[in-house]
Specification:
By secondary structure, this protein is of the alpha/beta class. About 30% of the residues lie in helices and about 30% in strands. A hairpin with an 8-residue loop joins strand 6 and strand 7. Helix 2 crosses helix 4 and helix 9 packs parallel to helix 10.
């Protein structure tokens, strides 16, 4: 194949041989293959110091995470046919697991397609591209997705913050058909109206599907508080599972309006109370008012977005968990979750332990929560495992 070579330094091929897909700029032999010879998005054949081909990748010479391996074979081009093959493999997994067409179809590195996310909402698809290498292949991606899925519409939500690192613009583009402003989806037998053009990320978070099912086993006849509720993925499902009532807290008035619409859709609006405001302040005000709940759900946005945010982020997790525990009845349930890639499950558990001890409570972990199977974990790339959570029983110490 007639592609330029990207040569690694001696012994810097071990990670790729072990299954990883990333190459950092300090691992490249820039004496032989200067990075100044490449432009963002260029495809290359990555080779070892011994000039053995390791596969085809794409690169951005301006980043520390310089190149990503996309195909271990060098015999075939990265084109529409390549994506048709990869999409068929990804689709086969999701159709094996889910009876209805609502899931993450492509999850980046875990599906062998770094820099590419595709969420499916029935016949409508939303794509997120986060790298220059994938951006250069947009036409092939869209055409392949049409061929494999017969999509009615494909929307490019290329407005994530990750694109800035790659020097890419923030844009939303209709790539095929017309994606409606509102789309109805089903998750765990609960209906939701989502907004693909304007909602967070692609308009929905499929990653906590299993967790929402798990916590629903604890809510029958209970009073539930859903913190960081967004448009009701957790809260509405607890009401459908038999919760007596659900109070939902979110800082976004728009999200709460959409949550109320979803409650109406599922005929449970009379059991819903919405509170607009900062989560920690809202929890403290509820405590001052003497409110108590049987189940509290805390699923915040990532408090630790970068490694340097670790210490303040960890403190934020401890504070929000402590505030949540103060609102629990004597023998109640806390679901504490995190989507921070840089926070390990053991550290979240330590936040729960610390919060419980600070207010003189006992904590018993009942279940651990993980991302769903449409977000498979790449065994060589720990960053693909980002969802973690614990369902914990919280009781008095005596």
């Amino acid at each position: 194949m007639n592609l330029p070579k990207l040569r690694l330094k001696k012994n810097e091929d071990k990670r790729l041989k072990g299954g990883h897909l990333w190459v950092f700029s300090n691992e490249i032999d820039t004496q032989v293959t200067p990075l100044t010879d490449f432009a963002p998005g260029d495809q290359v054949i990555i080779e070892s110091a011994q000039q053995k081909p390791l596969g085809i990748g794409y690169l951005n010479p301006n980043n520390l995470l310089c190149a990503r391996l996309i195909n271990r074979s060098t015999k075939h081009s990265i084109d529409k046919s390549f994506f048709v093959h990869r999409f068929n493999i990804a689709l086969a997994l999701r159709e094996r697991i889910f009876q209805q067409p609502f899931y993450r179809l492509v999850y980046g590195e875990s599906d062998g397609l770094p820099g590419l996310i595709i969420d499916r909402f029935g016949d409508h698809f939303v794509i997120q591209i986060t790298t220059a290498g994938m951006e250069a292949l947009t036409d092939d991606i869209v055409q392949a997705l049409q061929k494999v899925t017969k999509a009615h519409s494909i929307l490019l939500r290329n407005d994530s913050g990750a694109r800035k690192i790659e020097g890419l613009p923030s844009i939303v583009v209709q790539a095929h058909g017309t994606t409606p402003e509102q789309v109805e989806i089903v998750e765990n037998d609960t209906r939701f109206i989502i907004h693909p053009h304007t909602g967070q990320k692609t308009g929905w978070f499929y990653d906590h599907r299993q967790t929402r099912k798990q916590i629903s086993n604890y809510v029958q006849g209970q009073r539930v508080l859903d913190v960081f509720s967004y448009i009701g993925a957790f809260g509405i499902q607890t009401l459908k599972a038999g919760a007596k009532e659900c109070w939902s807290v979110d800082i976004s008035a728009k999200a709460l309006d959409e949550l109320e619409a979803n409650a109406e859709l599922n005929q449970c609006a009379e059991k819903l109370t919405c509170i607009e405001g900062d989560a920690l302040n809202a929890l403290q005000e509820l405590a001052q008012q003497g409110e108590k709940f049987d189940v509290v759900i805390v699923d915040p946005p990532a408090f630790i977005k970068r490694k340097k945010d670790y210490k303040p982020g960890l403190n934020a997790y401890r504070k929000i968990n402590e505030a949540a525990m103060r609102l629990l009845n004597k023998d109640s349930i806390l679901l504490s979750a995190s989507c921070s890639m840089h926070l390990q499950a053991k550290d979240l558990l330590d936040c729960i332990r610390s919060a419980a001890r600070h207010i003189d409570r006992n904590a018993q972990v009942l279940e651990q929560c993980h991302q769903g199977p449409d977000h498979p974990i790449h065994p060589a790339i720990s960053e693909t495992e980002y969802i973690k959570g614990f369902i914990t029983r919280v009781t008095p110490t005596n």
